[in-house]
Amino acid sequence: MSEDPFSPDALEAARVLFARPVRFLLGAAEVTQLPDPDLPEVAFAGRSNVGKSSLINAVVGQKALARASNEPGRTREVNLFLLDERIRLVDLPGYGFAKAPKKATAKFQNLGRAYLRGRPNLRRVYLLIDARHGLKAPDAEALDALDQAAVSYQIVLTKADKLRSAAAVEAVHAATAKAVAKRSAAFPRVAVTSSETGAGIAELRAEIAAAALV
Ligand code: GDP
Q1: For the chain, what is the mean pLDDT?
Q2: Is residue 90 over pLDDT 60?
Q3: How far is the centre of ligand 1, averaged over its atoms, from the C-alpha of 3 (Å)?
Q4: Which of 121, 138, 160, 189 has the most crowded Cβ, counting Cβ within 10 A?
Q5: Is the pLDDT of residue 66 over 60?
């Protein structure tokens, strides 16, 4: 991979990688159910409804690999997908979902935390933030957990198409970048994406490839 993550070659290599076969591997309700840490993993985290399923689907170019959070079943677990038999994409439980009973919420968060602390093959966490809202209190807790786990993470703003203007996108981008600049484990670039329009998806693929295949 070249030094510039967004060089034409890097973007093309990432496009080819993410066009390779991808499949649902398993949903783990406990860390003991996770596969051996023998392949690089990148994980996706964020508040419920942030657009996590949509982003994972956009990145792999499939409509229904990751499921919407309000569907029963998989999304309350840690869900793993296998890309090209060599990278695992990990969908972490959404946090801050007000309707979930407190005990259940704590359990999901514990699983997420246990995953973050215990994975030597975890190359990067993508923390998704809704571009309309920016960083909020529940996100700060997630950032603290990531800093404590000393896991490399990158902020991804989602649903950028819902903002009224490029200036509004730039404002939330700048504010978010400033907030994470003080954080020790944060990757400096804040990604801006829309699963709806595809904006920023090619660049995100390139960054995931660079993080996973070092
Ligand atoms: P999750 O709970 O984080 O997995 O969120 P989902 O991917 O299920 O998305 C939550 C809602 O936001 C759904 O109604 C999506 O259609 C919508 N959504 C997700 N991404 C985008 C986006 O980039 N743009 C727009 N306009 N809507 C989006």
Answers
A1: 89
A2: yes
A3: 32
A4: 160
A5: yes
**In angstroms, what is the span from residue 69 Cα to ligand 1's centroid?**
10
Q: Per-residue confidence at 20, pLDDT binned at 50, 70, 90?
A: very high
- What residues does 24 pair with on adjacent strands? 81
Q: What percent of the chain has pLDDT over 70?
A: 88
Comparing 46-60, 67-81, 111-125, 165-179, the range with the smallest average pLDDT is 67-81
Distance (angstroms) between ligand 1 centre and the Cα of 54 equals 6
Residue by residue, DSSP assigns 167-188 as: HHHHHHHHHHHHHHHT-TTB-S
pTM higher than the cut 0.85: yes
Ligand 1 pocket, CB under 6 A: 46, 48-54, 68-69, 94, 158-159, 161-162, 194-196
| Residue 196 · residue 161 · CB < 8 Å | yes
Q: Considering only CA atoms, which residue is closest to atom 15 of ligand 1?
A: 51
Top mutation candidate among 50, 52, 53, 54 for ligand 1, by most atoms within 8 Å of CB: 54
